[in-house]
Design brief:
Blueprint: H1 3-17, H2 22-28, H3 33-42, H4 48-58, E1 83-89, E2 98-103, E3 113-121, E4 136-143, E5 145-150, E6 153-158, E7 162-166, E8 171-175, E9 181-188
Antiparallel strand pairs: 1-2, 2-3, 3-9, 4-7, 4-9, 5-6, 5-8
């Protein structure tokens, strides 16, 4: 089963178990009902910001919809064995912005942080749409360069640089220098 179908199915199952109408969840998570329907029924992968808003509206942690197995002890993921690839991309074919997420702790039960290795493909244009959500993010650049639009500021980071910011401020992360980049990203969302 594709990761998007798995996420949408889990969201739908959880929503129905809690007897929440799709319209109510869409309203609480500030999404269009059609967007939520596409996520649940057609396997459309929500953006990270939208997924966080859905989890907040349901009162669960983001890992609820990303987990496969759960372990209460430490979880080790060996180099090259990243699991649960999740891909976020814009729907604009002219932009072709693409982020590939590799979860570094998909089996850890009850976690409050979501650590990812993220491959960032360059976009074709520069008018990025900022988004915000509750929580905090930590980014460490492993390869290449990235640019982060954060509120009214822009930050350029290269290999070895890091940034830690509050996700409630509108932001957008993308490849810098029109070349691919690789980062370690840790997302914390309170629930």
């Amino acid at each position: 089963m594709k990761q998007g179908n798995k996420i949408g199915k889990k969201i739908k199952e959880y929503r129905e178990f809690r007897q929440i109408k799709r319209e109510d969840l869409a309203l609480k998570s500030n999404l269009d009902v059609t967007q939520l329907e596409y996520i649940e029924e057609k396997g459309t992968v929500p953006s990270l910001g939208h997924l966080i808003k859905i989890t907040r509206a349901l009162g669960v942690r983001i890992g609820t919809f990303l987990d496969d197995l759960e372990s209460v002890g430490p979880v080790v993921v060996r180099g090259g064995e990243g699991k649960s690839t999740l891909s976020f991309s814009t729907k604009d074919p002219k932009n072709k912005e693409h982020l590939n997420f590799y979860s570094l702790a998909p089996d850890k039960a009850g976690r409050h942080m979501e650590p990812f290795m993220i491959d960032i493909e360059p976009a074709n244009k520069t008018d990025y749409k900022l988004s915000s959500h509750e929580g905090e993010e930590f980014i460490f650049v492993i390869e290449g360069a990235i640019e982060i639009n954060y509120g009214k500021n822009t930050y350029q980071l290269t290999k070895g640089d890091s940034i830690y910011y509050d996700s409630i401020v509108a932001h957008h992360l993308h490849a810098g220098n029109e070349k691919p980049a690789k980062i370690l990203g840790v997302v914390y969302t309170p629930y």
